[in-house]
Amino acid sequence: MLVLLITALLTITVSSLTVEEEIQLEEKIKNAIWTPLVENTVAELARLDKSATPFNAHATCGFSVHKDLTDYETAKQLCENSTWIGFPTPGGRKLASIHTELENKIATLMFQWAYGGEDLEGTRYEGATNWAWIGLEKVNRTSFRPNDAGKLVWEEEDWLWTDGTTLDSDSYENWMTREETDEQVQPDMWNVEEDHQTAARIFRKIREGETSGVWDDTFKSKLHPFICKFNIPVHYIVFPELKKWHEAKADCERRGFYFAKIRNKAENDLLVEAINRVYDGVRHDKKFHHENWIWIGATDLKASGDFEFYDGEPIKFSIPWAKNQHDNKKTKKQGSQDYAAVSRWGEWDDSYGNDWNRPYACQCNPHGVAIDREMEEANAAWEREVLRRNELKDRLKKEKETKKNMKKEARQAKKKARQERKQK
To answer: What gap in Å lies between CA 149 and CA 152, rounded to an integer?
Structure first.
């Protein structure tokens, strides 16, 4: 729906619009993006608060904001030294690098969520919680303020994000401006004796005319909350605790996540990566050892043999079943194998969900991952491989039937020949 709306707006011939109409069109497009962004971010924050708030943090699938007041260098260390904020953050985190207006909007929304809105602590510069550290610092020409500098001390190449990106003229930035003239006034590299302002922070309140929090430079020794960005956005999370299928589903929801869905081969590969991060690629020698298999949110309870996700969403890709699976075995004690599990190496199996205890997988974003070209190619290659295997299987089956029929015909011919000889 969002794509259709934006596409419809873009079909308007821009050259036929006045300047005022162009501005209005840009505003409509931005609102079409902001509205679902705000809704999704708030929804993620509300869900993941179930896990993150005991750690004095709030999180989405890609960022976390922390209310512990720390200096800049400590904030960097806290982001990098821990991958646990009530749930694991695979790949670790860094103090947030912000490269787009959308990311700045998300960071601001999260900051406001953590403190209940835009209301400030005292005046703008008084309250420590009015600002949060982001991962941007001045790394060149930090020991002195130029004598001929005015209010602004700003050279893009002097500033570095924690992800290693250096600012340039094309980089996104949102430094504070003078409200009356929109003239940039930060960073100013103000100094007290030998100490200079060389670290960036983001403002909690959105000023009139802005869409997200502005930036300011300050002393690294200041104490503020801080915002981390995940090096790998959280999608699948594998928990090694052993649970039955329904217990696993309930525990994902208790933590603020969803029971894992796998909608294509690329996502199947992503789940295997998540599994390997937990088990380091190690597996039990016995193939069907319970800890080799991870529960996911797929079942054929409604129609035996027809697997779908727990909420009725159909599975639309070719499932990579293990050899001779799914076999839908039944026993009086265990019932029917109506629940799906994925092995540490990526094959699927149907299992006794009410009887067997296994690890389980949750996911953060219920809509799945954004499919890029490489993933599209991997999905297409998998479907071609499945088609090739099925065609080969059908051909071998036909060849086997042909050989069987030929042998049968040969036996019948021999039998007939013997009968004919006897009659003579």
So the answer is: 7
CB–CB of 161/134 below 8 Å? no
The encoded tokens of residue 292 equal 């080799």
Q: Which tokens hold the place of 324?
A: 């001779």
Give the pTM.
0.84
Region at 169 (left for phi over 0; alpha for psi -120 to 50; beta for the rest): alpha
Q: Where are the beta strands (DSSP E) in 22-174?
A: 57-59, 63-70, 93-95, 131-138, 159-161
CA distances from residue 218 to 30, 137, 189, 211, 331 in whole angstroms, order as listed:
31, 10, 7, 22, 68
Cis (ω within 30 of 0) for the bond into 326? yes
- Residue 99 to residue 106: CA distance in whole angstroms: 12
Q: How far apart are CA 50 and CA 48, in angstroms?
A: 5
* Mean per-residue pLDDT pooled into runs of 10, the chain (424 residues): 41 60 68 76 95 96 96 97 89 94 94 94 93 97 81 90 93 92 90 90 91 94 97 93 96 97 95 93 88 95 90 94 75 72 95 88 90 91 92 89 87 82 74
Q: Which tokens hold the place of 223?
A: 């104490």
Q: Are 133 and 227 in contact (CB under 8 A)?
A: yes
